[in-house]
Design brief:
163 residues; alpha+beta; Immunoglobulin-like; 5-stranded antiparallel sheet; 37% strand
Length: 163
Amino acid sequence: MVTTTARTKTAKRGIEPIVAAILLIAIAIVAGVILYLWVSRLISSGTTTTTASVAAQMQVLSVEGLCTSQSCTVTIYVRSPNPLLSTYIREAVLYFVNGTVAKVVSKECTKSSTEPCIEVSSVSGDVYKIVVKNLDTKYEGGTYYCEVFTSYGTFVTPSFIMS
């Protein structure tokens, strides 16, 4: 006796067209984000190289600390290839010679400034004068160095005695 079994044919179906469209859109968005991140990293690494090379070209010519009976002042002369250095000074940090922070100054001087502030002016050509004004007289007699932060990088002065 011969038995025949009927096979049920199941039709294999693909994914719905709407799901396929959503998957394609998601893949395109992810690829776009990856491309954007890759390109922005390339652009920013080029900028970092440029700003680092400008920072390396800045040269401290001299530094001096002077105190009067009312306040102390640090004057730094810097040679910089950037003609706009005066607009890019962000902060000056006065350190004791052992590396301990003595004072952080990040305010730009005005005519009536009585608090510690920074004043930058062009002396001649590529030489700039950076003055950290209105420091407390308690710094008189100490040995310090100053670190100046600019948009182009950081430079450190040699040590000096506040006299």
